[in-house]
From TrEMBL:
Entry's family note: Belongs to the PRORSD1 family.
Native source organism of the sequence: Ilyodon furcidens (goldbreast splitfin)
Protein name: PrdX deacylase domain-containing protein 1
InterPro entries: ProX/PRXD1, YbaK/aa-tRNA-synt-asso_dom_sf, YbaK/aa-tRNA-synth-assoc-dom
PANTHER family on file: PROLYL-TRNA SYNTHETASE ASSOCIATED DOMAIN-CONTAINING PROTEIN 1-RELATED, YBAK DOMAIN-CONTAINING PROTEIN
Spans traversing the lipid bilayer: none
Start and end residues of each YbaK/aminoacyl-tRNA synthetase-associated domain: 8-121
Length: 135
């Protein structure tokens, strides 16, 4: 974060999750300073409290072609069958941010997209975002 202190916009954190029964996969992109409560999110998604957990790196490599620490909305490009549902922090697209910052498939760099460009990218990949509010 020290390198991103002076950027105008929102920096994201990304979580790749699965449900307890391994039937569903979710990628969550939220502002880096937001708390993501997995129990609350599980209830909202209808998978039941306590049923969301971090997915194994092997699943992330298979579905998104990125390893641990490199989850990003941009990797949805590789989810050709749309088996990964995308949860997006509502503030990222409705909070008036000029730019939203993501890893570009590696955690060694960060790139910015305008919110409308992110939404256009998601539409092109067939991933309609599920908007959620995180505190």
């Amino acid at each position: 974060m020290p390198h991103l202190q002076d950027v105008s916009g929102a920096v994201t954190k990304n979580l790749f999750l699965k449900d307890k029964k391994k039937k569903g996969l979710w990628l969550v992109s939220a502002r880096h300073d937001r708390q993501v409560n997995l129990n609350d999110l599980a209830k909202k998604l209808g998978v039941g409290s306590g049923n969301l957990r971090f997915a194994d790196e092997a699943i992330m490599l298979e579905k998104l072609k990125v390893g641990q620490g490199c989850a990003t909305a941009l990797a949805l490009l590789f989810d050709k069958d749309q088996s990964v549902k995308f949860i997006l922090d509502r503030d990222l697209v409705e909070g008036g941010h000029q730019m939203i910052y993501f890893h570009p498939m590696t955690n060694a760099a960060t790139m910015g997209l305008r919110p409308e460009d992110l939404l256009r990218f998601l539409k092109e990949t067939g991933h309609e975002p599920i908007l959620e509010s995180f505190q």
